[in-house]
Write a structure and sequence with these properties.
- The chain has no helices and 17 strands.
- By secondary structure, the protein is mostly beta strands.
- The protein folds into two domains: 1-89, no CATH class; 90-178, Sandwich (Immunoglobulin-like).
- The strands form five sheets. Strands 12, 13, 15, 16 and 17 form a five-stranded antiparallel sheet that branches.
- The mean pLDDT is 92.
């Protein structure tokens, strides 16, 4: 997208074959938002994977306010989300800890931003599975409780109403996660 405002890209498989699982990535980025690309929505429910460069690219200072939300982004050749001076360079949040019970994820972000948390089976630094969202308080603190983690590697993004969405945070490896095994009934 270039020189565009107010569009929504939702519910697409970008970089995947028709089966929704096999790689068929683009030779550059999955979605490019450049040259005065403003106030667009990428998500929810896009699956962006297997592109040879970034999953989503927001380029140049004239591109801002672009929200990238509730997508599954993984296995791209470079970053899952790349801001090249786009989205006013909003900083990603930090994940500081996880605690058992159900799993409680704590961290810091920009003041009153929306934080989205993702889990992945590898430490590639993208977000393969969207887990949930929570608002950071005035001091930038957030806590998200989820019933369990299917994968140990967590990342997060911050969404600010004016700036748009950040890149993915640094990877946090949780030691509190659950592997869900299939239920098997024995034959008699």
């Amino acid at each position: 997208m270039a020189d565009t405002t107010g569009n929504t890209i939702s519910g697409n498989a970008i970089g995947l074959a028709a089966d929704g699982h096999s790689g068929l990535g683009n030779t550059f980025v999955g979605i490019a938002c450049v040259d005065q690309c403003q106030d667009n929505m990428i998500g929810p429910r896009n699956h962006i994977a297997y592109n040879s460069s970034d999953g989503v690219l927001v380029g140049n200072a004239a591109s801002y306010g672009n929200v990238i939300t509730e997508n599954n982004i993984h296995a791209n050749g470079d970053k899952g989300i790349e801001l090249l001076d786009g989205n006013n360079g909003i900083l990603p949040p930090d994940i500081l800890s996880t605690m058992p019970g159900s799993v409680i994820i704590q961290g810091t972000a920009c003041s009153e931003c929306t934080v989205e948390i993702f889990a992945s089976p590898t430490d590639e630094g993208e977000g393969q599975l969207f887990l949930g969202r929570v608002a950071a308080d005035l001091a930038g603190q957030y806590i998200l409780e989820v019933p369990g983690l299917p994968y140990p590697y967590l990342t997060a993004t911050a969404i600010d109403a004016e700036d748009g969405t950040s890149e993915f945070s640094a990877v946090f490896r949780s030691t509190v996660y659950f592997v869900f095994l299939p239920f098997v009934v024995a034959a008699h």
